[in-house]
Design goal:
The complex is a heterodimer of chains A (317) and B (419).
Chain A: H1 7-13, H2 35-65, H3 81-87, H4 90-121, H5 127-135, H6 142-152, H7 158-165, H8 177-204, H9 209-217, H10 222-233, H11 235-251, H12 254-260, H13 272-281, H14 285-316
Helix pairs in contact in A: 3-14, 4-5, 4-8, 4-11, 6-12, 8-11, 11-14, 13-14
Chain B: H1 2-20, E1 37-42, H2 48-64, E2 69-74, H3 80-89, E3 96-100, H4 103-106, E4 133-134, E5 137-138, E6 145-147, E7 150-153, H5 154-159, H6 171-184, E8 188-190, H7 199-211, H8 214-221, H9 230-244, H10 257-266, E9 270-274, H11 283-290, E10 294-297, E11 312-314, E12 316-320, H12 326-336, H13 339-350, H14 365-372, H15 387-401, H16 407-418
Parallel strand pairs in B: 1-2, 1-3, 8-9
Antiparallel strand pairs in B: 3-12, 4-5, 6-11, 7-9, 7-10
Helix pairs in contact in B: 2-12, 2-13, 7-9, 9-16, 15-16
The chains are: A mainly alpha (317), B alpha/beta (419).
């Protein structure tokens, strides 16, 4: 191989520059350290350093910290005591249960975004208007949304006033165990489905128009078109929206929880993130670190499952 | 690839090995001791009066230490203790920090330097020390007194046909008054914001002296608490009963205490409220809205053999986190209780200050009534609770309010959390 004269030439001539190609026929030779072999490492080094210093190192410190005690046991190795304490802690158990509730709401958000995107895609009257309206909440801060819905969902708020005026019972949505977390999740869906909707619209633009036309000619009705043409065509988009929505739900609810329920009533709307923040505020940072490790594990497990599902879906297509 | 992985793995291993012995034992470093700066954390000044008071304190301190640069860092109160805890763990904590007396200070005494001997000379001048004492050591000096006085709206009392000048003195009278207010007016008897679960601690400390005997009260403060005792369960029972009997505004569990519930009282939507004596939700703030209609009442007698006392104690004070700056820290603490600075602030900001020699120069009657009750006052019951128990109390308080757990269940959970 002649020495290329430019980076562009390197890229074009060799799909994996820097990695000497090895074929079974050629006997292995000693690799020379040249600028060619070193440059790629140098190029990725800054990113790796940033990851190591600002992500991996603090993560390891946090894990290490979770095995130490709080207050008078500050800095003392306590083994798995923090983890054992958390497992029998009412608030931790509640937040773990609530993660399952949160996961139940993921399909709802995907469904809402998917349906509304379909309506926009088939150009219902006023679809341009709805497209911007649906996206509007995405740009609002969760704190502002929380403040707005504190009023809307209040015991004497407009929603209850409306219900009362038509003879329906009034509910203190944010102050009752059964309704507090679902209310927050419903608001979260309202606030974030716009992003999922945009991803769906992008997916729609890749749909094969011929298939849609063929379905129309064959006399498929609207539900049939959705079920047999649109959903199969959008399988990758749907998977992607599932993953991003789940991540958003697991890591983006703090602002709403903080403003809307503060974890209550009791521990009814605690989520791991909120618990971590509370524990640290109670001067128990090591315990909070242990809870953070649990959250990491939860996100990791769910993330791995989803990546697996996503990979399988990609293969099928 | 292997060649690349190896150094990374070694690096990660080294990091783990290094950090394993570090843990959380980092303490604030004394590096800045020589350069003459004093880093102080607080949660900012809520109004101009507070800012003026801080300027006066700075001036008093500067007279003693003209070469020391004071750096005041204001943190948002909502996240104050979280940020402070993180900073201390990271070894970047301030030299001094502002603390709420009671639980917040007492749960962090391991990080604080005792100043018992250093402050002995001003001990007699100030009231409210117990909130800053733990295990026989003093950790700060109270700047203000924070208490839970019960305020009432005389206009609503009059509208309901009650005597505005003679508020209830027993529990039965109070219950009758609430019944009357419910039937004669369309406002609630008490304003309550329990979103954060704070309501029950206001209830416990606000009414405690009428429920517990003086001996039980003192034992409670000293840490001898039995949540399953007759009078402790009575507190929980009364709390649940008052909710059941409709004393509070709708949706109390979803109403924020600061400031939505106090706004209800200021706005004439509730006849009574358990408020504060300093800082916020106090006589001066309510006076702005209610004027002469603002009344103050003592707790009511629930049980025989009790002695009614105004619940009030040291509210906030600075604690020394950096032992190397103990002398500067002590002088700062003394500057914060400077008589002139406190006197000016008490009027301008609406504070009941700790210095008992300062006469509160205001014509707001409820403030004078509060001050008149100071000699027989007692510390707050809830601030002697540990952080865990207090948080549990908040949660069971919310659950009791909506009838989701029984009083017995709540009492046994609280007893278990006290260990």
């Amino acid at each position: 191989m002649t020495a290329p004269t430019s980076t562009r030439a390197v890229v074009l001539s060799d799909p994996s520059p820097g990695w000497p190609r090895r074929t079974p026929k050629v006997p292995r030779r000693k690799r020379k350290i040249t600028s060619e072999t070193v440059t790629p490492y140098l190029l990725v080094l800054p990113v790796l350093l940033i990851l190591l210093v600002f992500r991996i190192y603090p993560l390891l410190l946090g894990i290490n910290f979770s095995f130490t005690g709080d207050q008078e046991l500050n800095g003392v190795f306590v083994g798995f005591d923090n983890y054992l304490f958390l497992l029998q802690d009412e608030r931790f158990q509640a937040s773990a249960r609530n993660v399952l509730v949160v996961l139940l709401f993921v399909p709802i958000e995907v469904l809402v975004a998917g349906l509304l995107a379909t309506f926009i895609f088939i150009k219902v009257p006023g679809h341009r208007f709805y497209r911007s309206v649906y996206f509007l909440p995405v740009v609002l801060s969760p704190i502002i949304i929380g403040a707005i819905f504190n009023i809307v969902l209040g015991a004497n708020g407009p929603l209850n006033a409306m219900a009362d005026s038509v003879g329906l019972p009034t509910v203190d949505y944010l102050g009752q165990t059964m309704t507090a977390l679902p209310s927050v999740l419903a608001v979260h869906i309202w606030a974030t489905f716009g992003m999922a909707l945009v991803i769906f619209l992008a997916g729609f633009s890749t749909l094969d128009q011929q298939l849609l036309d063929a379905a129309k000619i064959d006399g498929a009705n609207f539900p049939q078109t959705i079920w047999h043409v649109i959903i199969p065509g959008l399988s990758q988009t749907i998977q992607f929206v599932f993953v991003t929505t789940t991540i958003g739900m697991l890591t983006g609810l703090f602002g709403l929880l903080y403003t809307m329920t503060a974890g209550g009533p009791g521990a009814a709307s605690y989520l791991p993130e909120f618990l971590i923040w509370k524990l640290n505020g109670e001067a128990r940072p090591a315990l909070a670190s242990a809870a953070s490790v649990f959250l990491l594990l939860i996100v990791l497990v769910i993330g791995l499952i989803q990546i697996r599902v996503l990979r399988r879906a990609t293969k099928e297509s | 690839m292997k060649r690349f992985v190896a150094p990374v793995a070694i690096g990660v291993g080294a990091v783990l090995a290094l950090s394993a012995c570090g843990g959380a034992a980092t303490t604030p470093s004394g590096e800045s001791a020589e350069d003459g700066t004093l880093v102080i954390w607080n949660w900012g000044n809520s109004d101009d009066a507070a800012a003026a008071y801080q300027d006066e304190v700075l001036a008093v301190f500067a007279e003693q230490h003209p070469d020391v640069e004071v750096e005041i860092v204001s943190q948002p109160f909502d996240q104050y203790y979280t940020l402070l805890g993180s900073a201390i763990e990271a070894g970047t904590g301030p030299d001094l920090a502002l603390f709420n007396g009671g639980t917040q200070l007492k749960s962090r005494t391991d990080q604080l330097t005792p100043v018992t001997d250093e402050l002995a000379d001003i001990h007699d001048q100030l009231a409210g020390w117990p909130a800053f004492e733990d295990g026989g050591e003093t950790y700060s000096a109270p700047m203000f007194l924070q208490g839970f006085p019960i305020y009432y709206n005389k206009a609503i009392f009059a509208e309901a046909g009650l005597d505005p000048e003679n508020p209830p003195t027993t529990w039965d009278e109070l219950a009758d008054a609430c019944d009357t207010i419910a039937s004669e007016t369309d406002v609630s008897c008490f304003a309550l914001g329990n979103k954060e679960g704070l309501g029950i601690e206001f209830f416990l400390s606000g009414f405690g002296s009428g429920i517990f005997t003086p001996e039980e009260y003192d034992a409670w403060i000293d840490g001898e608490r039995d949540w399953e005792s007759e009078h402790a369960t009575q507190v929980l029972q009364l709390w649940a009963d008052t909710a059941e009997d409709g004393w509070y505004n709708d949706g109390a569990n979803s109403t924020a205490m600061f400031n939505d519930s106090f706004d209800l009282f200021s706005g004439g939507q509730a006849a009574m409220v358990i408020g504060l004596s300093s800082g916020i939700a106090h006589w001066k703030q309510f006076d702005d809205f209610l004027g002469d209609d603002l009344g103050f009442m003592m707790p009511v007698t629930v049980n025989d053999g009790t002695t009614l006392a105004l619940p009030i104690e040291g509210g906030i004070g600075y604690g020394v986190l950096n032992e190397d700056k103990l002398d500067l820290g002590v002088d700062w603490i003394k500057a914060t209780v400077d008589r002139d600075a406190l006197a000016n602030y008490s009027i301008a900001g609406g504070q009941i200050v700790s210095d008992t020699t300062i006469e509160l120069d205001t014509d707001i009657q409820s403030a004078q009534d509060i001050v008149a009750e100071l000699p027989g006052s007692k510390p707050l019951l809830h601030t002697s609770l540990g952080g865990d128990t207090l948080d549990l109390l908040h949660r069971v308080g919310q659950q009791l309010l909506i009838g989701e757990i029984t009083v017995e269940d709540a009492a046994s959970q609280l007893a278990a959390s006290e260990g």
